[in-house]
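step=encode ok
step=design start
structure_in=
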């Protein structure tokens, strides 16, 4: 194949923010185009206007740099290449980004070294006592906790960073910080966008459907039958960034019943969503000068989800179940529910105790400062990780129709995470998103024997390639983890992810709400693929849910120091009947 031309353009997302790269790879005699989101906003939707404006500029610069890379180095590398060789071409583009990233890291390291050298020169005449520099001492004469920790490190005392008042026994809480975020260079989003463009071109050159081509990439050859992924459709969006006191559930989602056709279950989910919208309009009333649709639209987020004022986490589930009852549907039989708990978002990382920092990050958060080292479930109600295990166990016990939760805790609370898995994993998937590294890194990492989840949520964005996601999914599936493919926040109408979810045999596809064209397009594509597979007798029906039961490994034997820690045991539960 010989590359005869190239074109890259920018598109606006549903916020009107430039963020998408369209890579057009023209191959003789084929023309293949891609339009899909490859960047995601880092800020919350309710962030301050000036913060959103600054982020928009960063994203625009990111896209501009990506276009420049695609029109120069990347197109030069891809010229004359066979697009069916996905892994090889992904590696070529990854090498380009890797070299740029290494050069950027070297530049930053040199600048940091120069700053440190300058600071040491300026302070060479100062003689700090007790390991504390003058910069660590505030005007009041009191030493700040962070300064004390730094001094302890210098003196070799090894004092831990303490946060919170502790649990029932009054023991102090050691706040384990998150890992530092991976540094993304400007323009890195071109890697994901180019990988998707190559994948589509490869399907065209092979003269097969996109999901069949992806199936061949995943399994070595295209499967004779395909299983449809179950869409996770968001109804409500809440969490700490939303109005109301409830903070511990970010997304309330509906999931079709396995074994039933999507052409039947997706309309049921849409009916629930519309029924709730209707109830909102009827409750709040409609001004004479406005249409009901416009009134309801005020409660819709950029992902299409409804944002209500919840003071209790149960409210979202209750509203969904009430709506299902009005439509003659039974929770746990016709439709199931799933929750994105986003534990990292409700954990108080602030070691300095600044109310201002909390209010800036979460505008709707209560002015009362949460206790550091705890999870804020509801405004004014914080719990330690140990207490969170009991809370979610009791909560989910009252809602048996919930079959999946995402990120109930941070990965740093691995013991509590495993304890929660042992209690509820036999009847509910515990899925990890933020607790795992991105696919490009996770595929090469050694898995820990003391940390497990029921599945992994993957996103195709930034520096993640199609090959990365497929390889990582295979690795994790071999270790008893289900595959969940997720859309991004700033999506476009491109339906690539629907084909990818089918081709890679994903259990779930997290699509967002059944509202807005960029979300509905994925649902429409799923139903279209299902019809195609059914007509050609290649549709593999879904079986019942089978939950991998995760058991906490016993502690290592202490006698003689020769005891070996037993691996985490994973058994398959009988599952939930249709």
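sequence_out=
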């Amino acid at each position: 194949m010989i590359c005869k031309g190239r074109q890259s353009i920018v598109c606006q997302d549903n916020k009107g923010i430039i963020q998408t790269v369209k890579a057009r790879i023209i191959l003789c005699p084929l023309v293949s185009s891609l339009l899909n989101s490859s960047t995601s906003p880092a800020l919350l939707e309710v962030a301050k206007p000036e913060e959103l404006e600054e982020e928009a500029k960063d994203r625009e610069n990111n896209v501009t740099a990506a276009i420049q890379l695609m029109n120069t180095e990347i197109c030069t590398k891809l010229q004359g290449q066979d697009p069916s060789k996905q892994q090889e071409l992904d590696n070529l583009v990854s090498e380009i980004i890797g070299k740029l990233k290494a050069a950027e890291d070297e530049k930053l390291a040199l600048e940091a070294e120069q700053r440190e050298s300058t600071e040491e020169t300026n302070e060479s005449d100062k003689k700090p006592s007790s390991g504390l520099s003058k910069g660590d001492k505030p005007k009041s004469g009191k030493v700040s906790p962070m300064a004390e920790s730094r001094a302890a490190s210098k003196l070799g005392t090894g004092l831990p960073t303490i946060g919170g008042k502790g649990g029932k026994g009054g023991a102090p809480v050691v706040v384990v910080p998150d890992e530092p975020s991976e540094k993304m260079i400007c323009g890195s989003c071109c890697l994901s966008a180019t990988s998707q463009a190559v994948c589509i071109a490869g399907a065209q050159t092979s003269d097969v459907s996109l999901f069949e081509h992806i199936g061949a990439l995943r399994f070595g050859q295209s499967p004779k039958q395909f299983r449809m992924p179950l869409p996770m459709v968001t109804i409500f969006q809440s969490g700490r960034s939303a109005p109301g006191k409830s903070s511990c559930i970010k997304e309330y989602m509906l999931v079709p019943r396995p074994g039933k056709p999507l052409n039947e279950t997706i309309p049921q989910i849409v009916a629930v969503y519309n029924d709730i919208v209707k109830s909102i309009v009827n409750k709040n009333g409609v001004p004479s000068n406005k249409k009901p649709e416009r009134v309801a639209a005020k409660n819709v987020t950029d992902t299409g989800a409804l944002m209500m004022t919840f003071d209790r986490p149960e409210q979202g589930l209750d509203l969904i179940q009430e709506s299902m009852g009005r439509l003659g549907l039974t929770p746990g039989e016709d439709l199931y529910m799933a929750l994105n708990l986003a534990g990292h978002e409700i954990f108080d990382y602030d070691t300095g105790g600044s109310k201002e920092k909390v209010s800036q990050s979460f505008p709707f958060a209560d002015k009362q400062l949460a206790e550091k080292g705890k999870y804020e479930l509801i405004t004014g109600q914080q719990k330690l990780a140990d207490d969170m295990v009991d809370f979610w166990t009791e909560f989910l016990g009252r809602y048996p129709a919930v079959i999946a939760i995402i990120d109930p805790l941070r990965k740093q609370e691995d013991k509590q995470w495993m304890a929660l898995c042992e209690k509820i994993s036999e009847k509910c998937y515990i899925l990890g998103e933020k607790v795992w590294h991105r696919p490009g890194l996770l595929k090469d990492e050694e898995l820990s024997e003391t940390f497990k989840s029921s599945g992994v949520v993957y996103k195709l964005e930034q520096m993640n390639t199609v090959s990365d996601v497929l390889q990582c999914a295979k690795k994790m599936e071999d270790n008893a983890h289900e595959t969940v493919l997720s859309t991004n926040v700033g999506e476009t109408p491109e339906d690539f992810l629907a084909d990818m979810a089918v081709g890679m045999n994903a259990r779930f596809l997290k699509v967002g709400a059944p509202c807005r064209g960029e979300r509905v397009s994925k649902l429409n594509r799923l139903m279209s693929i299902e019809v195609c597979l059914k007509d050609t007798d290649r549709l593999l029906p879904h079986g019942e849910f089978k939950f991998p039961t995760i058991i906490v490994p016993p502690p290592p034997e202490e006698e003689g120091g020769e005891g070996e820690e037993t691996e985490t045991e994973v058994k398959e539960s009988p599952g939930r009947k249709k």
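step=design ok
step=annotate ok -> The radius of gyration is 25 Å.
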